[in-house]
Design brief:
single chain, mainly alpha, 74% helix
Length: 159
């Protein structure tokens, strides 16, 4: 409920609290639209509509008192988008954004470490496994992409 401690400094009415949820929903929808740039905008809008009609997302963004699931979904999208941008640009900024987003996600819902650990370890396995399936390419464990994944995995393990 930390977000409501911040919102109360700006407004005393219920409208301010609902506006914070609407802002989170708009941010969530924008991140979903930005995430897959290989699809046309019409396909992305259709997927966004289907996602917003899913019960878990619909209930998380329609209630005031349950904030942890909203933040997990929002920062999960931020983490995935930051990892994607890091792969494209190899920028340290996007790596830091991914780590900070993952940390905030873990802070809001502790069980998210399972999701984060599975994400990071599966990316490491897919990257470092040889194409023919016979063995590993250990030299790829020290690539920049792998270091980010190891950082995310260690963040989940330490948590």
């Amino acid at each position: 409920m930390q977000e409501f401690n911040i919102v109360r400094h700006f407004t005393n009415g219920i409208i301010g609290y609902h506006l914070s949820i609407i802002l989170q929903l708009v941010t969530f929808a924008s991140l979903l639209l930005l995430l897959d740039d290989e699809l046309k905008i019409r396909s992305r809008a259709t997927l966004l509509t289907i996602a917003l009609l899913a019960a878990s997302i619909l209930f998380s963004f329609s209630e005031l008192w349950d904030t942890s699931e909203r933040f997990v979904m929002l920062f999960l999208l931020c983490t995935v988008l930051s990892v994607k941008r890091f792969e494209e640009t190899q920028s340290t900024f996007w790596a830091l954004a991914a780590v900070v987003s993952a940390q905030i996600m873990l802070y809001n819902k502790e069980i998210a470490f399972v999701l984060l650990l599975g994400f990071a370890v599966s990316r490491l396995i897919l990257r470092c496994r040889k194409i023919d399936g016979a063995g590993w390419r250990f030299d790829l464990f020290w690539a920049r992409d792998s270091r980010l994944d190891m950082c995310l995995a260690s963040l989940a393990v330490v948590f």
